[in-house]
Each structure stands twice: as C-alpha cells, then as structure tokens.
Write the structure tokens for this entry.
Amino acid sequence: MPRPFFGDRLVIASHNQGKVEEIAALLAPFAIDTVSAGALGISEPEETGDSFEENAALKGRAVAEASGLPALADDSGLVVPALGGAPGIYSARWAGPTKDFRAAMARVHRKLGDRDRSATFVAVLALAWPDGGIELFRGEAPGRLVWPPRGERGFGYDPIFVPAGGTETFGEIEPAEKHKISHRARAFAKLVDGCLKNG
C-alpha cells in the first residue's frame, strides 16, 4: 500500500514554471498549499539517474531534505521509438542551457526525417518525505509528432505532439482538456488513488 499523504503543504520540486503551474493546478482541488523549490531558493540537483524514476526520486528526496517538507518531483520527457527512445530522460537537455525548446523540437524533426512519427510522453511523479520515504507513479500518453509546431499553450515539446485519438497538439488544446489526458495527469491520477484519497 502506498503511504498516504496527510499534509496540507507541499513543495513542487521544479524550477520549470510550466510544470509548477500544471502540478499546482492538479493539486488545487485537494486544498494543498504549494510552493516551488525555486521560490524557496532550493537549487535543482543534477539529474544523474538512468531512468525517469531515478531522476524523479533524486529530485524529490533532495528537495524534501532541503526544505523539511514533503516534496513532489516530476521527471518527464518525450520518448520517440524511431530515435531509439531519444530524447527521453534528456528531453530538457536537448533544449540546451537556454531552454530553447523551439531548437529542441527542430532537432527531433531533423533527426526523425521520414521515419515513424509515433511518440509517447512519459511522466514519473515522486512524492518524497523528509524522512526519506518515497512513492513513485508513472503515467504515459501515446501519440504522434507533427511538423511544424502548432499552438502557443503548454510548454516543452507540446506544440509538436498530438495525443492518440486527437487532432490538436498539446500546444493547441485547452489546459483543462490537457489535464485530463496528459502523461502527468495519468501519473497524478495514480498518486491520488494511492496517496491522497487516504489522506
């Protein structure tokens, strides 16, 4: 059984404003007060893991320890089978130090050429406690890549990703709609079932 979360304050272990806003919106119905690691002046640890799970756990534990509060970390990325799973856990790094996701999307498009454009967004949420306890939840959203990028909503690779069964990219659809079907929303639903419903 996953460990239930009984608190009313949670640190979102991210400096990515898009992620912080998306996670805060998902937590809003549970009356949990959120603050970002960046707002607390906590720097992001280096992501040295070999999987989304390892990196999410690493970030969650580091922020829970530094803040003395439970922390919710996310490690997510775009997995493209035709590129051997790249950019995968290196999705943010493909955007470079300036976080230029336009360049990252162009790189994916260039490397893909005319190969199969199926892709999956993956998100792993790590709920970490200051005592070292941790729970991990993985969500996936299958879809396909399009070019050129479409839409100004969302963040990261959203403007080139069309979810399975859809016609609009994650960059075009309403945020409320994305919150129902995204990889992060699916991981979050598991977190709710495992930890928040018991709280």
